[in-house]
Structure formats: C-alpha cells, structure tokens
From TrEMBL:
This is Xylose isomerase. It comes from the Bacteria. GO terms for biological process: D-xylose metabolic process. Signal peptide: none annotated. The lineage of its organism: Bacteria, Pseudomonadati, Pseudomonadota, Alphaproteobacteria, Rhodobacterales. The keyword Ligase does not apply. Its EC number is 5.3.1.5. Mg(2+) 1 binds at E232, E268, D296, D339. Gene3D superfamilies: Divalent-metal-dependent TIM barrel enzymes.
Amino acid sequence: MKSGFFEGIETISYEGADSGSPLAFRHYNPDEIVMGKRMEDHLRFAVAWWHSFAWEGGDPFGGPTFERPWYPQDDMGRARMKADIAFEMFEILGQPYFCWHDADIRPDQGNYADNLRTLEEITDYIGQKMEGAGTKLLWGTANMFSHRRWMSGASTNPDPDVFAFAAATVKSCIDATHKLGGENYVLWGGREGYETLLNTNIGTELDHMGRFLNMVVEYKHKIGFKGAILVEPKPQEPSKHQYDYDAATCIGFLRKYGLEDEVKLNLEQGHAILAGHSFEHEIAVATAEGMLGSIDMNRNDYQSGWDTDQFPNNTPEVALAYYHILKDGGFSTGGTNFDAKIRRQSIDAQDLVAAHIGGMDICARGFKAAAAMIQDGGMDAALAERYSGWDTPAAQSMLESSLQDISDRVLADHINPEPKSGRQEILENYVNRFV
C-alpha cells in the first residue's frame, strides 16, 4: 500500500534530450550500452538515506523547513514509515542502490543496548523491503559525529569509553551492512581531528585511529564480509583540521598502519573543494595508487565556504571525474551515491524526485562524454607525446643511475634543454568538444 507522499508522481522513464517534462530522464538511459556495458551497471547510482529522508531542511542559521509525515524521527513507527517512503522513491527512480548511516534509519536511543536493538529491528524491516525490490545496499556506515558523545571524536577521543562505544557502534553497523548484502562499508571520521593543539596529542590520536581501523578489517574477515572497507577524506568542518584531510593524506595514513591492501577511498566532490582540490585531482590521486573505491557525487556552492552538499549540475566537472574512473577500469564494488540534498526552500516531494533526476542526467551526460574521450584517444595521445622522451633507453637508464653519472652525461652531451609547451588551452578545447 502506497503512502501517498509521492501522489501523482509516476515511475520516471527515459524520454530523450528533447523531452520537456520536468519528471523524465533526458540523458540517463539505464539500458544504453556504453563501452560494452549498460549505463546502470557503469554508474551504479545510490540514494543517500540521510540527505534525502533524514535531513529536515535546517542550516546553521535556521531550523527545519521540511514537513514530512515521518517527523519527528524519534520512534520506530516513523522509522519504518521513512523506510516505506524511501523504497517508494527507489521504485519511482529505478534506483539500483541506496546507502545509510545508522542514525538515519533508526532513532538514537541514547545508549548502546537500545541503539543495537532498534538497529537490528530496522535492519530486518529494510531486509523485508529489499526482498520485493530491485534496490540493493551500496554501503552502510555509522554516524559518529552528530551526538554530543562524539564532540571530541570517536576513535580519536581522549576518553577510552567513547572509543569503546565507537567500536561497538561500528561492529553493529558492519553486522547490519553484512546482513543486508552491502557491497561496501564506509568510515567517515567527521570529528576525527582537532579544534586546537592546546589539548590534543596528535600522535596518540593517530595511533588509536590506526588501531581502530585495523580492528574493523579484522572483524570484516572474521565474519566473512566480502565488501570493501572504505574511508572518506574531508579536510575540515566540523573539526578545524581532520586527520583524513584528502586522498593523499589518507593513503599515507593507510600505509603507515599497514592497511593499504585492505582499505580504499570513498571520495566526495564537496570535500575535494574544501581541501583546495578539484574532484578529478582526488580521483586521479586515488587511481594512481590503486585505491579508488567509490564516490559521493555532489557539489558545493562556490560562493560559500562550507560543505553545502548540492546535487551535481556541472557537466564538465562530472565528465573529468568519470574520465579518470573509466581509465581506472570503472567501479568494482563502489558506485555513485548522491551525498547531496535539495535546498531548504524546495519543500515538495516533487523537488526531491526532480533533484535526483537532474543529478542522474548530469552524471549520464558527463559519463558519456568521458567514454567518448577515451574512445577518441586524444587525451592519451597528448600525454604519450608529452612524456615520449622517457621512452628512450638513455632516459630509462637514468632512473637507475646516480647523480654523478647524470652530471657527467649532461657535461659530455652538452644537454641544455629548451622549455616545451604544455598545450593546456588545446587540451581544454579538446575536452569542450565532448561536453
């Protein structure tokens, strides 16, 4: 029995680029074959439970603006109603995946025993919903940043009791993810960082965080969870400085604590911008090290200095992101989740559906542009030409040589190189041919 929340909204279909309907796909055709695979299987879209169903429309300067039948989110009856609504939208959009934090799907009871009980209850309920649906769990995670107990961090908290509560919470969330057939488990620190060094022992906190993540990996193998363990970088907000600052920082951290073969990255566009990077930069760093797991596809408002988590609407940005993902072979266990939210003035159910339609269309446009660039080969050819000097035996032997031998060669061969153009404008024009 339908809830009536999406009354008047039918299943969204692909109508093509000329469609004038606000509730139709113009570019996302799940069955379209691109580079030998269905578009749905390439992009692996996932609705984020938190911003789509748990966020109430507040911001740092004002309270909730949304009125939903499952608010306030403080009992299990409304948690089940929220799940019903979520699966109705998955069906409307034809979504293959969803993802959640524990605090999104069940009310926080204030103590671990009751949190565990309600999590297990809603996990069983969601499992029943999944049996009659075509939507799977891309990943689960624990919210260890919203409740006041986490104000000084979770695994990095100076209080060992908070560390213990965090460990128990993550165990319960991995169990729930495993039970629902989740394909990944994500850890996002949120408050794994510091406000001031006056009261922070960085070395101790990093060691505790490293041991915590090793415990997660050990438990994954103990229970036979086949999904990937992912960590999500973010530079700041809410903490002044977070230990998982960006992709490169996380990769260094994983190597320090012996986790480079066990854990990969879940990268978010908005977090890349806060770190002073582009999204394709973060993806390229991860793929260069074989550590790309999944992506959170959103954007920030470039006139705002904080993480606004809006739906994507910039085709060139999206195209360059998918270009590097496709060059890496595409997603395996990961996918494209919409860690994005409608604006607090967009209060109708139709706005929520339309936002996902637009995000999926932008991703499809960018993805097809990326695939076309790869098939054309122009970027590969330009890179090969720029680095072609390294193909010579003399250049390769230099990498096995010494400073003295190289210095002798420069003198003997009268090496005095002239600069060569990077041809950036030509390559930017090339990209614009496809987007």
